[in-house]
Design brief:
Layout lengths: L2 E6 L5 E6 L4 E5 L5 E6 L4 E5 L5 E6 L4 E5 L5 E6 L2
Antiparallel strand pairs: 1-2, 1-8, 2-3, 3-4, 4-5, 5-6, 6-7, 7-8
Length: about 80
């Protein structure tokens, strides 16, 4: 069963998606652009946008997500229960 995620970028734009059971991540921007990535076994998150730009972060044990875009801007989010 996949887990739904909500993310907000540094400008408070809302992104939504899911973490699948196999660790693959599907994420969609406010304009419905597709981002894809992977949740690693150590909790690290790696995401790429359609231009192959790299986003990285961490899924914490409390379900919070810390993510940084290619420019180093902080994004935050949560896995929905």
């Amino acid at each position: 069963m996949s887990q739904k995620i909500d993310l907000y970028d540094h400008s408070s734009n809302y992104y939504h998606g899911q973490i699948k059971d196999d660790g693959n991540i599907d994420l969609y921007s406010p304009s419905n652009s597709y981002y894809h990535g992977k949740l690693k076994s150590n909790g690290n998150i790696e995401i790429y946008d359609s231009g192959n730009n790299f986003y990285h972060g961490k899924l914490k044990s409390n379900g919070n997500i810390d993510l940084y875009d290619p420019e180093g801007n902080y994004w935050h989010g949560k896995v929905k229960a």
